[in-house]
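Shipment paperwork, digital attachment
Item: protein structure file
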Amino acid sequence: MILVTGATGTLGREVLKKLPAGLSLRVLVRDPSRLGEAAHKAEIVAGDYGDPRSLDRALRGVSRAFLLTCRVGGDDDARFLRAARSAGVRHVVKVSAAAVEDEGAHDLITRWQRTNEQLLFGSGIRWTLLRPRAFMSNTLSWAASIASEGVVRALCGTSPNACVDPRDVAAAAVRALTEDGHEGQIHTLTGPEPISAVEQTARLGRLLGRPLRFEELSPQRARVLLGARHPAAVVEALLTAAERQRAGAKAGVTDTVLRLTGRPARPFGTWAEDHLAAFAAVPR
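Attachment content:
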């Protein structure tokens, strides 16, 4: 039995989609109605990390688990790992972040991920760590302004980031969940090239067949816009991470996707072409 958490999010949804037919699958999810067609592929347990009873139900009989947490500063990892150890789970594949291995990264989000990794190392459960660089899908936050104004507004416009297609991260996760030999391994996952927001804007414009304009956000303006979606402490962490990108800390490329899956990592242009409809229509 394999348990998938985060199955309604960008990455977890892809993991569930890519797991081979015929496996015994279970999903822990707050709102089962958001699973869509994937609901027919797995046994569903409604609940979350803060509900010990739902955790116990989800983990009963599970041998391998995909762990994805996103409540920065929270104790969801600790709750999950305690329950997993009690349930006899043998192997946890956890999503962390590439920033963890950067000695210069000390923002709140990175510190939280480092703490969670240490919890996993000390859990007594066999583990695999996935450390992806930023997801290409983060550019979907530009969709509304692209569709309505033909404008992208972001920080660090000319600073490169070796962002990765979430589908490639999901493919790596599936390998770790279904094959032996990944225990005790740390897989840093990037795209095939570093690319800046200005370059992403240009590629999206070519695919859409219309010119797009890039506007560099000041830290003050970015703080306001990010504050509409995130707590203040998370906003400051994101701004600090942006400064690291400006200094070149996120430009390094790995061949991990190729080594794990046998297929090169997808470039941004491929991801964008596959998701172009999201940038073409003005949201109502």
